Each structure stands twice: as structure tokens, then as C-alpha cells.
Amino acid sequence: MEYIKLPTGERMPMLGYGVFQIKQNETKRCVADALSCGYRLIDTAQAYYNEREVGAAIAKSGIERSDIFLVDKVWVSNYGRGTTYDSIQSSLKILGTDYIDLMLLHQPYNDYYAAWRDMERALDDGLVRAIGVSNFDPVRLLDLCTFAKSKPAVNQIETHVFWQQEYAHQNMKDLNIQHMSWGPFAEGAHNFFANPVLTKIGKAHNKTTGQVALRYLIDSDVIVIPKSTHMDRIRENFDIFDFALTNEEKKQIASLDTHHSTVFDHTDTKVIGGLLDFIKKGL
């Protein structure tokens, strides 16, 4: 495993296991499989409705809690003075743990400044070891860093070979914030798993397109959290530390960048308007 040291001093794995859209009745088994393969970073969220199953799998694994890096996210409807802090306490109870290694604000909407102050309070009180954000664009991220007491340690955003987020990545480097990817396989867009560039490079290393893409992102200093419910794929996604991409191969992968979202465009007002309406209804 390769690790990054966060500004807070926490040692965070560069490769983890994500549980977005995994059903509750499958989550415990999937997380257990991931832990058995060697994963030590597990990424969940309040809005995934599987925190309890994640916590149960961790508790049953027999692995020391200190050896697992747990990431969680506060949902937008839980933003607000006191409300965010209470939701973190609730997540701790659901997860069955005394602390969360990294807590993120899931979206840059609603009163995220009040939510951030509660996050800082949770950090000071030891409920969480590090705090960060998700889906914050460079302008909102800079704004938060400028006026907050504590800067985010991590920003988790859509990042994959078809949207490599060069501008956002440099912005994070300038602010000393770690870049974390969601959707590292682009949700299969652009025929990801049969892409000729990734396929050719994979054959040269006896690796799959997914393994090549994950290796490329980690080499670019981006934390990745691939998801699968199949044991063979979970194991495969972890098996990326025994090969190295050449500079020429990296150039070829860099050329795949379309410079825009392929999964969920946070700059599209129609897309975001639908999300905000959904949140406002309390769903």
C-alpha cells in the first residue's frame, strides 16, 4: 500500500474501497471482502444509508480500528449550527466507533459555513481526526480556506482519465489540500473498460484497463476509491502496486482527458437544481 500524509498528520492510504450505491444487504459482505483483500480505507456517507453495515463489517473483521482509515460524509440536509455536530455524533453511534478518521461535507450547498464550524468543533473534540469537503470547485474551496479557522485536509471530486481535473488539482496543491477521486472508472463512460489506449497499456503490463487507470491516478497524487460488489474485481482493483507506467504511457493516458464531467456535472444548473429540489423535500 502507498500512503499520503495529510496536513493534520494523519496517514491516509492512496487506495480505498467505496460503498456508494451498494445495497444495505450487500454492504457488510462487500466491506468484509475488501478488508480481507488488504484494503484499509473505507469510504461511506450518511446519504448512502449503509453506515451501519460498514461499521458492522469493520467490527467483525478482527482488524484493529487504528489500522483502518474510515471516511464519512455529512449530507446537505444536516448542515447548520448544531445540526451538523449532532449528525456526526449520530454517525458515530451508527458506525459503532469512537472516531471517524476523515469527515467530509458532501456537497457545497446549503449553509456549509455553519456546517464547517461544526466540523471544526468535532475536530477539536476528537470526534473526527481530519475534516474535508467533497465536490467543492476551486472558487468555493478557496473561499472556505480563506475564512475558515481550519482548512479542509481533503477535497473529493469526480476524477478519472476522461476528466483529470488538472486545474482543480493544482488549486488543491497550492492550498495544501489532498485530491481524492470519486468515480475513478468514470461510471463506465466512453466505453471505459474497452478503451483502446488503456487496453494496450494494460496488455503491456498484464493488467486490466481499470488497474491501469487506478495506477495512473495514484501516480498523479490522487487518492482513489473504486467500487465493486464482486470479489474478483475487488481483489483485482487492489492489485496495482506491482507495476509502473512509463512516461510515454502516462502521456497517452493524459491525452484521454476531455476536460469536463462525464458523470455528474456540478456546473450544470439543471442537474444541480434537481439535486437541490430533492434535498429541499427532505429526501
Q: What is the rounded distance between the termini?
A: 38 Å
Number of β-strand runs:
10
CATH architecture: Alpha-Beta Barrel
Main beta-sheet strand count, sense and barrel state: 8 strands, parallel
Write a structural description.
The chain has one domain (11-280): Alpha-Beta Barrel (TIM Barrel), CATH 3.20.20. The chain contains eleven helices and ten strands. The protein has helices at residues 24-37, 51-61, 83-95, 112-124, 138-147, 166-175, 196-205, 209-219, 231-238, 247-254, 269-280, and strands at 3-5, 11-13, 17-18, 41-43, 69-74, 102-105, 131-134, 154-158, 178-182, 222-223. The strands form two sheets. Strands 3-4-5-6-7-8-9-10 form an eight-stranded parallel beta sheet. A two-stranded antiparallel sheet has the order 1-2. Helix 1 (24-37) runs parallel beside helix 2 (51-61), helix 1 (24-37) packs across helix 9 and helix 7 (196-205) packs across helix 8 (209-219). It starts with a strand and ends with a helix.
Q: What descriptors fit this protein?
A:
two-stranded antiparallel sheet, alpha/beta, globular, 283 residues, TIM Barrel, 11 helices
Task: List the SSEs and their pairings.
Layout: E1 3-5, E2 11-13, E3 17-18, H1 24-37, E4 41-43, H2 51-61, E5 69-74, H3 83-95, E6 102-105, H4 112-124, E7 131-134, H5 138-147, E8 154-158, H6 166-175, E9 178-182, H7 196-205, H8 209-219, E10 222-223, H9 231-238, H10 247-254, H11 269-280
Parallel strand pairs: 3-4, 4-5, 5-6, 6-7, 7-8, 8-9, 9-10
Antiparallel strand pairs: 1-2
Helix pairs in contact: 1-2, 1-9, 3-4, 5-6, 7-8
